[in-house]
């Protein structure tokens, strides 16, 4: 039975044609994915189904209605989970879970009951103890994502729309989420999911609608659902799928570490661990949510201070300089790209250009502080071409960009800073597969030129054919380290669950350089 039938939809935002001819048919008891490159119109289509955006043209039938507002959509049984988390940070967890719910449940449940339900669902989903009275501001990004998900699930929807493009969920959490989706499907719900995680989608979606430049270019059923088929349809014009993840030429040069972290403890009194990074090296960082890896990369980037231990970077003269705050990091050309772009990355009220240029003003202004806008625009144009950022005008607000394109602006800003070390904290969340491949190519070229990369990812597949070393965190410390040829799903997953022998990183410091970094032949 058809739950959703939208046909020949068009939608413009000013001059941007977000959807030109989009159609989607989904049944009850079905998991239906919407896939496509960044900016292809996936979120816009999802928002039309949820009544958040109104179509300019075409037929919309959702559960027999054409929802004209989110409230109308909720009233007919549509729940939505969006990319950009809508949470009131100063309120408690339970207040957020039940925000706006009283009108649907007609104040049927007491505060105590709401708290009980919040605790029950969140502990199941987040797999950790939760106090419903905690303020949302105190919980990590992944728990915030679960709060938004719980809010939608508790409404027992007939249609659930899930725009997961930037979901902050690790591997284990993703499988719990898939389990919830399968349960919903079994109870008859039509689950619509917007995703870039093609490899996972192939395992559990029943149908996929593929968008390219605002047009539905195909629908793929369970039997034909392979990564190759999806990628071919998604990127027929760009040929991204054909791009092999080949290794670039490697950096030939400096033998000494560029960055060293010694005796780092993420909590006071913790057993310390060491870490090093050489020029030309790409180090992947993994771990289950809460294992310490996110805190660690923030320390390396000078954002937070290590409770214990010391981070140093070799400066241009060969001296090791301490990194204890952001200005140390900036002075030593360490750039940071956050995956939590809403909290740490973008300034929602500023334009695309302002968001890009903020950190560059110092470099492109004269002695009187006047910014050289022309020079800045040139840098922007170069970076936007490099990362294929799609937008209307430079002066449009950054929030008018699709999620993936916002993320690209932040990556472009990091490159434009001409860093020596780039630290990326799950940067590919919400970024389409073609752009991911481009990002890997840029990062490899950056490393080949003598830069060094620290790349935290919740998708360990990202490390394959890309990272020179993968360091895995477990229970608050660096637990295992794998060189290139040992980077694989089994090794990394095992370590994420604490299943391999911890390595002694102080020994690793003494060891040979990674195989891809050859010492330079010295002319004598
Ligand atoms: N509110 C808005 N104002 C202006 N332009 C918008 C708005 N919302 C979306 N767009 C534009 O419409 C196009 C499609 O955006 P949409 O968010 O639907 O893409 P998407 O496929 O979900 O992308 P992503 O994978 O990056 O999340 C983009 O070019 C985007 O910049």
TrEMBL record:
GO MF terms, alphabetically ordered: ATP binding
Matching Pfam families: ABC_tran (PF00005)
UniProt KW keywords: ATP-binding, Nucleotide-binding, Repeat, Sugar transport, Transport
Domain ABC transporter, first and last residues per copy: 4-238, 254-500
InterPro entries: AAA+_ATPase (IPR003593), ABC_carbohydrate_import_ATPase (IPR050107), ABC_transporter-like_ATP-bd (IPR003439), ABC_transporter-like_CS (IPR017871), P-loop_NTPase (IPR027417)
Name listed for the protein in its UniProt record: Sugar ABC transporter ATP-binding protein
Lineage summary: Bacteria, Pseudomonadati, Pseudomonadota, Alphaproteobacteria, Rhodobacterales
